Amino acid sequence: MKINTGAEYIESLRKLNPKIYYKGKRIEDVTKHPATSPHVRAAAMTYALSNQKKYRDLATAISHLTRRRISRFTHVHQNVEDLIKKIKLLRILGQKTGTCFQRCVGFDGINAVYSVVFEIDQKHGTDYFERFKKWLRYIQDENLMVVGAMTDPKGDRSKGPTDQDDPDQYLHVVDRRDDGIVIRGAKLHMTGAINSHEILVMPTTALDENAKDYAIVGAIPIDAPGVTLIFGRQASDDRRDKREYIDVGKSKFGVVGGEAVIAFDDVFIPKDRVFIDGETSFTGILVYRFAAHHRANYGACKTGLMDVLTGAVSYLAQIQGTAKRSHIKDKVTEMIHLCETLYSSSIACSVEGCQTPSGAYMVDTMLANVCKQNVTRFHFEVARLATDIAGGFIATMPSEYDLKSEEVGHIVRKYFSGVSEIPVEDRIKIGRLIEAMTGGTAMVESMHGAGSPQAQRIMIFREGKLDEKIKLAKALANIPNKKKKEKKSD
Ligand code: SF4
Ligand code: FE
Q1: Inside any domain, residue 258
Q2: How many separate domains does the chain show?
Q3: What is the per-residue pLDDT across 46-82, written as a single tens digit (0 to 9) for each?
């Protein structure tokens, strides 16, 4: 692997020249800017773990393409064990960063595209699979971070891509040349985009055959001409504007993945980097496989975050002298129970995974959707319990400036202290950590990342096999299954 360590990953980003804006100004170096550097450090952890003996088996894999050792984040799952190892790895990374480490989006995109382009070639005699494998070998050997770019702006949502007043509301081809295609449009909410090396664009939804120009999958370097990124605002991001404070809550890593708009203004993709061009009938399965892989992750990365939150409130309860109270123990027990229930569904959808015709493995899609749906409830309940245990002070604490002030610092110290043997700074730091991990931006990600709750409910209903369940009920109630009347022919 060319990029071997977290430090080398950070160095590799400095060699790129992406056009990134934040609060109206261009960011020259994402590895140093206070708004983006925490996210860079979180992603760097995906590189760092590969070199730790304890995690090597989880964080790396042997490439089925080259037989070389690669980062698991660039691997195509070859069996159920690979699916399970991914889940275990993501939980550990969640525990170590307390946030989104971003690299799974490209990972899931790679796995979804790999399996689908194989099937397109089988049906249409195209050569997408060979093109994709060539690009993937490059990603694996260089150990690059890829942003999986799926979500289009969608404009007027009562209309499909081809009916929009503005066709750019969905990413589409504006020119086809002998040597490649030119695309225009945008992708929103792109986790980890500003610190990725490559963009893997995919369609956002199943498309009908009139929407061929929108059925595009291809890979583009992050600093390709015509690509502009706008980094999103996050709750309390001004707190890290000048330097990183206690008030940030988690100064080393961000509170959430770090999302950006990616605009494509007539961006050229050379032919050997175009992996789908116009095969609309495969867009539904591509989106579905990508979403299922990503939904499976959420019972892993988010349980890592919940582990941190459970630890934070348990320590805070010790500081505040409430740890032995039965209602506190009961609430902490409930937090652990919800967390492990979520993790179970991530493991379950991996254990129940199956092989696709390409040889790549897929998670069980029903269980993956159930997993993500549960995140949209359990993570919120865990955050509610953490807020309950922590108390109102996490929302009313004076700032770090006051803590360090010569005039009023002594007041903050006196009245924000807990049990005498633990320094007041610990209470404030843990309070800020809980504030950051239960606050606005972090929790929105849990609700809408990997698809909004309704997206999972649609799939759960669709895959619910209601006909079979009705038959089960009828059999036990002694209701015969009536045969459908055959139509008389004239
Ligand atoms: Fe990975 Fe979780 Fe972040 Fe998605 S939300 S990119 S699964 S860490
Ligand atoms: Fe996400």
Answers
A1: yes
A2: 1
A3: 999 999 999 999 999 999 999 999 999 999 999 999 9
Which of 195, 200, 259, 301 should be mutated for ligand 1, with most atoms under 8 A from CB? 301
Are the CB atoms for 293 and 311 separated by under 8 Å? no
What atom in ligand 1 is closest to the CA of residue 302? 2
Q: What is the pLDDT of residue 256?
A: 85
Active-site amino acid positions:
100, 104, 191, 259, 294, 298, 301, 445
- Tell me the HSE value of 127 on the side-chain side, using a 13 A CA sphere: 7
Rounded to 5, what percent of the chain is helix, strand, coil?
A: 55, 15, 30
Q: Which helix (H) or strand (E) holds 270?
A: strand 259-270
Domain assignment present for residue 36? The answer is yes
- What's the pTM value of the predicted model, to 2 decimals? 0.95
Instruction: Report the number of secondary-structure helices (H) and strands (E) in the chain.
Output: 16, 14
What distance in Å separates the CA atoms of residue 405 and residue 408, rounded to the nearest whole number?
6
Residue 93 structural domain: 6-291
Q: Which atom of ligand 1 is nearest to the CA of 99?
A: 8
Average pLDDT over the chain, rounded to an integer: 95
346-387: pLDDT as tens digits: 999 999 999 999 999 999 999 999 999 999 999 999 999 999
Counting as low any pLDDT under 70, the low residues of the chain are 1, 241-244, 484-490
| ∠ CA 266-267-272, rounded to 5° | 135
Which residue is closest in CA terms to ligand 1's atom 8?
A: 100
Task: Tell whether ligand 1 has an atom less than 6 A from the beta carbon of residue 297.
Answer: yes
Residues facing residue 175 across a β-bridge? 182
- As a dihedral over the C-alpha atoms of residue 246, residue 8, residue 218, residue 121, rounded to 10 degrees, the angle is -120
Q: Return the pLDDT at 243.
A: 61
Q: Find tokens 């109206």 and name the residue.
A: 24
CATH of the domain at 273: 2.40.110.10
Within 10 A of 124 (CB to CB), how many other CB atoms are there?
A: 13
Sign of CA dihedral 315, 319, 324, 328: negative
User: How far apart are the CA of 329 and the centre of ligand 2, in A?
Assistant: 31
Ligand 1: atom nearest CA of 93 is 8
Residue nearest to atom 6 of ligand 1 (CA): 102
Query: CA 154, 159, 163, 169: dihedral to nearest 10 degrees?
Result: -10
* Residue 231 within any structural domain of the chain: yes
CA dist 311 and 433 (Å) reads 11
186 bridge partner residues? 263
Please report whether residue 318 resides in a domain.
Answer: no
